[in-house]
Specification:
- The chain has 187 residues and is an alpha+beta fold.
- It has one domain (5-186): Beta Polymerase, domain 2.
- The protein contains 5 helices and 6 strands, in the order E-H-E-E-H-E-E-E-H-H-H.
- It has helices at residues 18-34, 72-80, 119-133, 135-149, 156-186, and strands at 5-6, 41-44, 58-64, 83-85, 94-99, 106-115.
- Helix 3 crosses helix 5 (156-186) and helix 4 (135-149) packs antiparallel against helix 5.
């Protein structure tokens, strides 16, 4: 298994069970360095979706109580597991990365720090679980990824933007399910 992408590179690798093994290995490292609860650490992204070709980067979501409480001591603990905070600005999220090299050019893992049991936490889990449970959705998602790669092998932001409407469509299903369950519970 070869993990890692250079800055702004977009490349898909065939799915491998090694990605899950790597997630579990790194999860243990993170727990050892931070003392975080195992239930607050989840494997997300395409490497967590069965059979899905993916960028060879393992995405890890970590739920914490409050983003504003993320401080230097916690970031130092993540550094002990090899993760450095990125200057990425995303609403409701702090992003860290692990690199394969000393010059921080090749990223192999991402940590997405989000607030535990809040919307972003639930949305990311729903997306992963929905695709794992739905072969048609997996095929649609793969087709979108492949379509992007027919025109480019770089531009990570453009790649993410290209997939955004599909991701939002799936996440909207979470709200539909929640609404229909609410109606059923009233009856």
């Amino acid at each position: 298994m070869r993990l890692g992408l250079k800055r702004d590179e977009v490349r898909l690798e065939s799915h491998t069970s090694e990605w899950k093994k790597e997630f579990n290995r790194v999860k243990q490292e993170i727990q050892a360095c931070t003392g975080l609860d195992a239930h607050h650490i989840e494997h997300i992204g395409s490497t967590a979706i069965k059979g899905m070709p993916a960028k060879p980067i393992v995405d890890i979501m970590i739920g914490i109580d409050a983003l504003q409480d993320v401080d230097k001591p916690l970031l130092t603990k993540f550094a002990g597991a090899g993760f450095l905070r990125l200057k990425v600005e995303r609403p409701g999220e702090i992003v860290l990365a692990k690199f394969a090299d000393d010059i921080c050019e090749v990223k192999t893992h991402f940590i997405h720090l989000v607030e535990y049991q809040q919307d972003l936490w639930h949305n990311l889990l729903f997306f992963r679980n929905y695709l794992n449970d739905n072969a048609d959705a997996r095929q649609q998602y793969l087709a979108i990824k492949q379509e992007y790669l027919t025109t480019s092998s770089s531009g990570i932001k453009a790649y993410t933007d290209f997939k955004e409407s599909f991701v939002k469509e799936i996440i909207a299903k979470r709200m539909e399910y929640a609404h229909s369950e609410e109606i059923e519970s009233r009856n």
